[in-house]
Amino acid sequence: MTKAKISLVLRLLAVGSTAAAIAVMVTSHETAKVLNLSFDAKYSYTSAFVYFVIAEAIAGGYSLVSLLLSCKPVFWRLVMMMDVVIAMLLSSSIQLHHAGWLPICGQVPKFCDQLTGALIAGFVAAAIYLVLLLCSLRSLFALKP
Amino acid sequence: MTKAKISLVLRLLAVGSTAAAIAVMVTSHETAKVLNLSFDAKYSYTSAFVYFVIAEAIAGGYSLVSLLLSCKPVFWRLVMMMDVVIAMLLSSSIQLHHAGWLPICGQVPKFCDQLTGALIAGFVAAAIYLVLLLCSLRSLFALKP
């Protein structure tokens, strides 16, 4: 497999995992009853999860665009610089704030499972970008005179 | 100023800001009284803040080592690849989990101010690594035949 094909496959995987992260996070919703008071658990009540969804959406959209751009040799410098920015955006979005939700996980286990799933998909997307960047750097080093 | 000097200055700044982030986070501590019950607020009670301190310590230590390594041309490939890893580690550590602490900030304002300060210093360190990476890429692009 050529380096260009590996990069295309990695970008496709990034599109898939960011889309999965968004879908799982956005559909997470559960209502629980505690002491006769019913309460709603929803991702949008926590700013950190809203940030997660926005970051995954930007990264997913960019990954799609970069699929097209990376075919054109004119754009490879721009794509590689943007890859760095997106990689850092992705890693800033997968946070440990899930820990902050643990006290309510006894009441809303399905909701917590979905959060964990979304965060894992986000983590996979960030890992894909790390591999993508290291691969690009390696091929760039090989070009060096 | 040559590119090598800019890189050295950026790495020195990264050492400074990670050290500041660790110092401010580790010394944050406050005791508050709520309804005659006194409670302790400490960074080490939250796993996300412990992760922050560990990530900043790794990044700070690496920045120091890279100051020496980046002078030796043999290591520049290794340094650039490690820069990518450290940049992603740093951006994963500056999290929005501060939001999770807001409810107690009325009781422990000094503690919360210190947390915010530490997170800002961590953010600065991540921004420095972003600039460092984009600069390295630019000079690498210039070398390309």
UniProtKB/TrEMBL annotation, chains A, B:
Localisation: Cell membrane
Keywords, alphabetical: Cell membrane, Membrane, Signal, Transmembrane, Transmembrane helix
Pfam families: CASP_dom (PF04535)
Membrane spanning residue stretches: 45-67, 74-94, 114-135
Entries under InterPro entries matching the protein: CASP/CASPL, CASP_dom, CASPL
Main location group: membrane
Domain Casparian strip membrane protein intervals: 4-127
Record's bilayer topology term: Multi-pass membrane protein
NCBIfam families, alphabetized: A_tha_TIGR01569 (TIGR01569)
Self-association and partners: Homodimer and heterodimers.
PANTHER family: CASP-LIKE PROTEIN 1U1
Family listed: Belongs to the Casparian strip membrane proteins (CASP) family.
Protein name, UniProt field: CASP-like protein
Species in which this protein is naturally found: Eucalyptus grandis (Flooded gum)
